[in-house]
Amino acid sequence: AGIPLRSVPLRSVPLRSVPLRSVDLSAAPLRSVPLRSVNLAGIPLRSVPLSEIKNTNPDGSLTATSNPGLIVDCTKVDCVNGTVGDAATTPDAILASKTLGDLFDHVDPNVLPGSLAELIEGLIDTSSYPWENLPLEGLQPYAGAGARQVTYVVGYDVVGGGASADATVVVDLPPGFRYVEGSSVRHDDSVSEPTVTNEHLQWTLPEFGDTHRTLSFDAYPGFDLGAAYPSAQVTINENTVTASEPSPIFVQESGEGAPPGCEIECPIDFGNNVAATAPVIAPNQLVVSHIANSGDIDYYRIPVPPKGTRMQINLGNRSANADFDVAMLNDTVSTPLRSVPLRSVPLRSVPLADNGVDASAANSAVSPETLNDIPVGAAPLRSVSENRSTADEFLATVSDAEPTVNASPQYYTLQVTAFNGGNSNQPYVLYVKEFAPPPAPACPGPRVFAFPGQGVPGVAPALPANLNTLFLVDKKRMGDTFGTAQAANALASLTTLSGRADLGVIGAVFPVESDAAAAAAMTAWDADPCSVEKANAAFTAVSHVVDTVRSSKPTLKNIVVVGGDDILPMARVA
Questions:
Q1: Residue 315: what pLDDT?
Q2: Which residue, 1, 58, 90, 321, has fewest beta-carbon neighbours within 10 Å?
């Protein structure tokens, strides 16, 4: 299920046709917008040379003298060869007090590139804009291959002699439908475009003689399911005829293609009601679909992004009566830190969006207990949002799996359902946002030991019967870190302690580097000591050493880790 509507840039709306050079900011609120707050590097204004910033005459006209210092700090950016985009990406290069109006006052409008829409786009924080609540009507053309079209034909007869007259053809499309630009065709001659106001279309066509006319055009369907009826009327010489019994268009859920012979009432459980074959959706993409039948479940797959990526899934509810819920299922393959995965609890998080505090909770969306509200299959539940009534849904998580395993891509699965068997002819809108993980801090380089070469790798000891205590050491790292003498003293004391049967200790001192896999993991970690993945790989390798000992000595009860994190790494949480 789902019609993917690709992210629609603001520059694609009619404001794009308004050249920026024609915009008068002299009295507009935009004039006071701080210049530093505008994303100048992301819009065409970035290409304006700083040398185009000029002094003004008393009448407000520009002089021929370039003076970029009016707007920017020329000690921080190249004012001779640089651009507005260079200043925008250089910290504090734009003077703090300057506004958008100041820039427009000192630059010739004829060199201002782009449109008003592109300027507005630079003013909006697109990463936090609630795209899932964007009005859907009019977005159909941006659905790409998913944009369905229907063809309408208006037929009428002209009678009463050869005098020429204008025919006014008026069509009111069903709610939410939109005209396809350039699609008007008359069977015997060309036709101009209609006047369009949302669903209302009006053509003025020259007519003469007695003849039969047909006017055809295309339209994008709306987003509400069911039968949609248009209306049409033709007026010639003040005589108006209204179409009788116009044919309806039946709008049904896309992505759940009907089986042969099914046109109106169709069974569910075909199309993307199977998680394993669900459509793959990308971030920053509007996905519009429906829960059209009781018990319907819509699935989508999201490619697993790099580890540490913050993922936010928003569901905008356009239904007047259905309570939609969204859940993320965790069916990825990951390498556990131990042989027993730490992720044994399937419910990872129920995120709460911080929308402020109200004096009254009457209008708040309260999340009920999950219980059996959401039908979940065998895959573990990673995150869930199930606000009551028709409130929007929100969930968030952080990627902790590899994007690929054995050269095959991995996916998180989204599941959309309606509470208590609900359904609606009105849609929901999914929007997935991803925020890249913060850059890793600078790492000083490979680990440097105070006494390199003084440590000698140990060998695996013979394990006593009834072993109950295991002292984990890295003999080589201890020597390289503290020197031969201190490492020997520490190991001797541990050996003594491991034999204190009078204290109940039946122990063994086990050099983990005697295991080839653990030694290799430690070496890799030393080459990149800031790496969370390599530290965890070393931790996992040491854990496997313990698991091997435990399998042969089930009496083992106590594990003593000797040394700090630089000797034997603790597990990191990425």
A1: 94
A2: 58
Query: At 327, phi and psi to the nearest 5?
Result: -135, 150
Look up tokens 């020429």; give the residue: 164
Q: How confident is the model at residue 373, as a pLDDT?
A: 63
DSSP letters along 53-111, please? -EEE-TTS-EEEEE-GGGTB-TTTS-TTT-BHHHHHTSTT-B-TT-BHHHHHHTS-GGG
pLDDT value for 272: 74
Cα angle for residues 563, 568, 574 (degrees, 5° grid) = 130
CA distance 17 to 1: 35
The C-alpha atoms of residue 386 and residue 365 are separated, in whole angstroms, by: 9
Give residue 382's Cα distance to chain centre: 17
- Output the pLDDT for position 493: 96
User: What is the per-residue pLDDT for 346?
Assistant: 41
Residue 561, helix vs strand vs coil: strand
3-state secondary structure of 118: helix
pLDDT of res. 355: 46
Helices (H) and strands (E) in the chain, counts: 7, 27
Query: Which of the 8 DSSP states describes residue 420?
Result: G
Helices (H), 367-422: none
Please give the span between the terminal C-alpha atoms of the chain, in angstroms, as a whole number.
Answer: 34
Least Cα distance to 80 among 50, 115, 54 occurs for 50
pLDDT of the residue at 144: 67
Q: Is the pTM of this model over 0.70?
A: no
DSSP symbols for 251-316: E--TTSPPPTT-SSS--SSSSS-SGGGPPB--SSEEEEE---STT--EEEEEE--STT-EEEEEEE
Q: What's residue 333's pLDDT? A: 66
Which of 271, 327, 285, 334 lies closest to 307, judged by CA? 334
For the chain, which ranges sit under pLDDT 70?
Answer: 1-28, 117, 144-146, 160-163, 188, 208-209, 254-271, 333-373, 376-378, 574
Given this model, what pLDDT does residue 134 score?
A: 82
Q: What stretch of H or E contains 354?
A: none
Tokens of 73: 């700090």
Tell me what percent of the chain is helix, strand and coil, each rounded to the nearest 5: 25, 25, 50
Residue 66's CB is within 10 A of a number of other CB atoms, namely 18
Residue 188 is predicted with a pLDDT of 67
- Tokens in use for 325? 């819920």
CA distances for 188 relative to 153, 201, 215, angstroms: 14, 21, 10
Looking at residue 400, its pLDDT comes to 83
Please report the DSSP string for 524-555 in residue order: HHHHSTT-HHHHHHHHHHHHHHHHHHHHH-TT
Grouping H, G, I as helix, E, B as strand and the rest as coil, residue 328 is strand
One-letter amino acid at 205 equals: L
Residue identified by tokens 């800031």 is 530
